[in-house]
Amino acid sequence: MTQIDKSVVDAQNDKASAALKADYAALGEHLSRRGINIDAIKAKVAHYGVAVPSWGVGTGGTRFARFPGAGEPRNIFDKMDDCAVIHRLTGATPSVSLHIPWDKADPAALKAKAEETGLTFDAMNSNTFQDQAGQKHSYKFGSLSHANAATRQQAAEHNIECIEIGKAIGSKALTVWIGDGSNFPGQTNFTKQFERYLEAMRSVYKALPDDWRIFTEHKMYEPAFYSTVVQDWGTNYMIAEALGPKAYCLVDLGHHAPNVNIEMIVARLIQAKKLGGFHFNDSKYGDDDLDTGSIDPYRLFLVFNELVDAEMRGAAGFSPAHMLDQSHNVTDPIESLMVSAMEVQRAYAAALLVDRKALEGFQEENDALMATNTLKKAFRTDVEPILAMARLEKGAAIDPVTAYRASGYRAKVAAERPAVSGAGGGIV
Ligand SMILES: [Mn+2]
């Protein structure tokens, strides 16, 4: 395991700590004039964590090509080393989400690696959107909703296997995303296909331990381009209702049409007590899995505004899981994931600054301008000193990307991990 040397982090922090302390004090004074205690915000931010997907530390790609970087992780143990670096420097990503079968390994070895790296395991992710070597029935025409009962059963059994692996390593949730759908009008019967999906999911749900949750993830299109079985939050909500109290909806920000009001979907799912969690990323035209907050940080803030609103009023059954899910095609994945984890924290911190009492008053008075200005005032506040101070106090890095580059981690692992072929597509 190649760790980040403490002396590298300390040297970087020493250079930046005087300026940070001054900025933190100035922001604290500013916030106190607004009736906000900066230390209370910092404590909440320090407590906040977002999970990293194991597949995120590999270089992503498109169906056209994949251009691998140096020192790509070869297996789940390398991936966990990379995830540990992200958490070491940001203090914001304490858990990793595994994908089966990509990360299949001896559970005892996985637990030992978690112990060594100080990470825990977030939700398990199943994979019935590709065929694996030696697989009896192909998923070319679907998995849990396939017309053939044996294919559906194989897909359900795979999900149950993910639960079994998860039980052995301390996970408490299963996320199910399927690529099932169709490419031509008339190719499938929408109703029958969805009924078959629900029937298969009921058998998976039966295998779920009492203290587990199952998350279903909707996606508008791709890999199916005409219709998708779980295409939007309405269908997703129908699934969660049909399955039972352990079933929740997962919202991947990139899985919606452009301009869709995602924050409102979040509010609706909270109200229905069915918001299971998030996959954070950003997009411009479609689900291109750009880095979280890189395109529309205001939308991310508005999502967190709904989450903080629910948190503040103690909404019943509110306990969403947070994870990053994005594809890094042109950056070092470790750097992108660190920046993205901080963007999520930033949105949370800014949402905590919203003057909710004032906002409610403006809403009651139909003062649209002042209501929206109340949100903007929080969004425009630069909360970076709060985030950076939380990191410094945890022993993480004031500036994670600078510390990471100074550590030479990528060059070190590149020497240990042989280069991989860049041939073929590489959607992850
Ligand atoms: Mn996702």
TrEMBL record:
PANTHER family from the UniProt entry: L-RHAMNOSE ISOMERASE
Classification via Gene3D superfamilies: Divalent-metal-dependent TIM barrel enzymes (3.20.20.150)
Question: Which EC number(s) does the record attach to this protein?
Answer: 5.3.1.-, 5.3.1.14
Instruction: Using the record's annotation, list all stretches that form the Xylose isomerase-like TIM barrel domain.
Output: 98-289
- Which top EC class applies here? isomerase
Its keywords, alphabetically, are: Isomerase, Manganese, Metal-binding
Q: Name the species this protein comes from.
A: Rhizobium aquaticum
Keyword Transcription regulation attached: no
For molecular function, the Gene Ontology terms on record are: L-rhamnose isomerase activity
- The molecule here is called L-rhamnose isomerase/sugar isomerase
